[in-house]
Design a protein that fits this description.
The protein is an alpha+beta fold and 93 residues long. It has helices spanning 3-13, 19-38, 84-90, and strands at 43-45, 49-56, 59-62, 69-72, 75-82. The protein starts with a helix and ends with a helix.
């Protein structure tokens, strides 16, 4: 599902809200998650899962074009861990 499909689905389920209001709600939701993760925090949505960050160490990489060795700096990357209910919904037969 892409963002426009999410907005369309929310609009269909909430006919009392204007499209601009729905878009603003979605923007605030994602912006708040990103802001919390940028501060090194964690976001937990019960029944869905939790978002956090993990630290990647610096490493040696390769330039695919030239094959030269390149230093890749350490960084923080987002991590999602699905909740128990989400895993159960995904693994039903």
């Amino acid at each position: 599902m892409i963002r426009s499909e999410l907005l369309a689905e929310l609009a269909k389920e909430n006919p009392g809200l204007r499209a601009e209001e729905i878009e603003k709600i979605v923007n605030v939701f994602f912006d708040e998650i990103a802001a919390r993760l940028a501060k090194g925090g964690r976001v937990e949505l019960r029944g869905f899962g939790s978002f956090s960050t993990r630290e990647r160490d610096a490493r040696k990489g390769r330039n695919p074009r030239t094959g030269d060795s390149v230093d890749v700096p350490g960084k923080h990357v987002p991590y999602f861990k699905p909740g128990k209910e989400m895993r159960a919904r995904l693994n039903t037969d």
